[in-house]
Amino acid sequence: MTPTDQQTTNALSAARAAEPRPFDAVILSSFGGPEGQEDVIPFLRNVTRGRGIPDERLEEVATHYRANGGVSPINAQNRALRDALEAELRRRGVEVPLLWANRNWAPYVADVLTECNDRGYKDLLILATSAFSGYSSCRQYREDYGMGLEELGLADTLHVEKVRPYFDEIGFLTPSVQGLRDALAALRERVGEGALEVLFTTHSVPDTDAHASGSERIEFEENSAYVAQHLAASRWIVAQLGDAMDNVNWQLVYQSRSGPPQIPWLEPDICDVIETLPESGVRGVAVVPVGFVSDHMEVMWDLDTEAKDAAAEAGIAFERVATAGTHPAFVGALADAIEQRLGTETAPPRVSACGEGTWFDNCPADCCKKILRGQSAPRPTVAQTPLDQPIAVGMDDQGEVMYR
């Protein structure tokens, strides 16, 4: 990136930044998961609430958790991330309290909001364990807190904002660069000089959600902020590898789709792609879970079991890159994002590795919108810019921020 490009990126990033605030606490927010066999079905009921799915069908999904003792690894991973992030903030002299809340299992959002109010924490910053724009990965977290505040009668008492999607943070992407380089080296040791394939994978979502991601006022590749951000992140990772990508092709694929088969979801599916790779002379595949921040159940089952088995059936070598987890670069990037929102003297500048600028701190009101079945209006949502206010949509040919 040239100095001029960096100045342009900085300008758009600044236009999308919210004013720093002295937040009283930061809440690490995640999906949640069961802690034992007796928790599995109640947890899945929480995940699928409002859809009328019977327990017999939930038990089909429960087998993934049953095989792991009924315990999702995501909770332990979030505890580890919370501890690592807290230690990094303390090392920097940032003393803001760091709490943890989940969407679908204890500690629940409403309980943590109540705790914050009881402890006198009125200004709250949410850090989600999702790096990309999308309904489930961003807006739903903002809805979780909007609904929690309304149900508790605290909407006028607590102020809640959210850390922006951080898909373009160098610290988030760096672990994948290192991991992919190692995976390609391991594959070459196993298959020699044969052709290799890199599959960047993320959670599939309904086509309607993919196309609703981002704001209607901004144009995105493939008409989707969700897809465009994953492609941008994947290209950046590939670009860092240089000669290590010789005789290697790559593509973005999807995993973990669910729901009625008649509803279109993002494709292609990772296992379907792996089955076709031998036809192109591919002898080894490296899988990069670019859409995930930790090795939770869907990564372990869909990749380490199903995708790995698909590669074995296809007769090709398989390597899977680890997620960012508690990699020091990733923890440092999250600490940077928190410092930027706090406005500390040591806060680094907002830098996008692979975008025109960093994403919005407070998302546009039309961003990743979704009307769920049975609803007549959107849910209460925190951290958004009203529709009647212009937003920074990009840069013009003169390097000036464009608003719409």
TrEMBL record:
Pathway: Porphyrin-containing compound metabolism; protoheme biosynthesis
Residues binding Fe(2+), per UniProt: 203, 298
UniProt-listed Gene3D superfamilies: 3.40.50.1400
Main subcellular location of this protein, as a coarse class: cytoplasm
Residues binding Fe-coproporphyrin III, per UniProt: 72, 141
EC number: 4.99.1.9
Keywords assigned by UniProt, alphabetized: Cytoplasm, Heme biosynthesis, Iron, Lyase, Metal-binding, Porphyrin biosynthesis
One Pfam family it belongs to: Ferrochelatase
Subcellular localization: Cytoplasm
HAMAP family: Ferrochelatase (MF_00323)
Family under the similarity heading: Belongs to the ferrochelatase family.
Job description of the protein: Involved in coproporphyrin-dependent heme b biosynthesis. Catalyzes the insertion of ferrous iron into coproporphyrin III to form Fe-coproporphyrin III.
Protein name as catalogued: Coproporphyrin III ferrochelatase
Recorded name of the encoding gene: cpfC
